[in-house]
Amino acid sequence: MQVHLAKADITTLAVDAIVAPANSLGIMGAGVAAAIHRKGGPTIQREAMSLAPIAVGAAVVTNAGKLWAKHVIHAPTMEDPGMKIGVENVRRAARAALLAASRHAFDVIAIPGMGTGLGGVDPVDAARAIVDEVRAHRPPKPSTIYLVDIDDDMIDCLEEALRTASG
Q: For the chain, which terminal residue's Cβ has fewer other Cβ atoms within 10 angstroms, N or C?
């Protein structure tokens, strides 16, 4: 598996699937999820909400609306919108997103920083949790993972986590 790091707007990537850190209700109201909803159109949120509730530690796949990506993997980091969460929720969401990508045989996916906005998780801890889950993932798909964010601090944290990760 190849892992790439990029400072990029996840909504502009032409990949098999992008990950939307969400809530269990499928409401895409803040952060990365809101950007995906805004640029991809309301069909993404409607489909996600029709599949709710989505447990933290689970993920569902929807269409990607008007985005370049083909699909959106909704991986809740919190039950209700705006909740403060712990880093374990980020870990569970990352694992669920990777398993959903594998189940759907997505070859190339993009994962943003998760849980650091409204969730309140320290970016260093969130980056470490995401990278640990990526490194532990063994199924043949996805074969390429882009870790992306628009925030320089999150990119630095992901880069450090990749540099110091075992596996």
A: C
Decide: 145 and 107 in contact? Cβ < 8 Å: no
Of residues 113, 135, 136, the one with CA closest to residue 124: 113
> What are the tokens at 33?
């999820």
If residue 93 lies in a helix (H) or strand (E), which one and from where to where? helix 87-103
Range of the domain at 25: 2-164
CATH code: domain of residue 14? 3.40.220.10
pLDDT of 6-41, one tens digit each?
999 999 999 999 999 989 999 999 999 999 999 999
Can you give the pTM of this predicted structure?
0.97
Angle at which helices 31-40 and 42-50 cross, to 10°:
120
User: How many domains is the chain partitioned into structurally?
Assistant: 1
Angstrom distance (rounded) from CA 124 to CA 29: 24
pLDDT tens digits, one per residue of 41-87: 999 999 999 999 999 999 999 999 999 999 999 999 999 998 999 99
